[in-house]
Amino acid sequence: MSDDATTTPALHGAWTPEGETAPATPKVSEDAIITMLKTVFDPEIPIDIYELGLIYAVEIDDDGKVKVEMTLTTPSCPSAQELPSQVEESVRMVPGVTDVDVEVVWDPPWDQGRMSEDARLALNMY
């Protein structure tokens, strides 16, 4: 995990004759979001959810709001309750994120073809 995704830089406002200005809000980077998504693992498969291909989209607004569209390996996945909340918690840790919306989608359905090559190698599915 990279330090820039988990540590908040010291932000300071500027001093003006009218008083101190508010510090700038850091811009949320897609790389920081992906780094945090890679900390969430499917409990049944020893691969993170990003490499498994469970993350379909990440949208980052200028105001720091992040929307994540994800799926699960099956609709009857035993982790259906915990994985979305783990995704939300991990994304909230990224500096500059002001709100997180995680939406579980089922279309298109997940299949093994969505896994990264690294995930397939780790699971001997090449």
Structure summarized in a few sentences:
By secondary structure, the chain is an alpha+beta fold. The protein has helices at residues 3-6, 30-37, 49-52, 82-92, 117-122, and strands spanning 15-16, 19-20, 55-60, 65-70, 99-104. It is built from five helices and five strands, in the order αββααββαβα.
Kindly list the characteristics that best describe this protein:
126 residues; alpha+beta; 3-stranded mixed sheet; 5 strands
Structural features, described:
With 126 residues, this protein is an alpha+beta fold. Helices cover 26% and strands 17% of the residues. The protein has helices at residues 3-6, 30-37, 49-52, 82-92, 117-122; strands at residues 15-16, 19-20, 55-60, 65-70, 99-104. Residues 1-10 have low confidence and may be disordered.
Shape: elongated
Mean pLDDT: 86
Low-confidence stretches: 1-10
- Across the major sheet, the strand order is 3-4-5
Computed CA radius of gyration, to the nearest angstrom: 17 Å
**Helix and strand composition category:** alpha+beta
Strand proportion, as a percent range, falls in 15-25%
Q: What is the helix/strand order?
A: HEEHHEEHEH
- Please give the largest β-sheet: 3 strands, mixed
Helical content, roughly? 25-40%
The tally of beta strands, per DSSP, is 5
Number of helices: 5
Distance between the termini: 27 Å
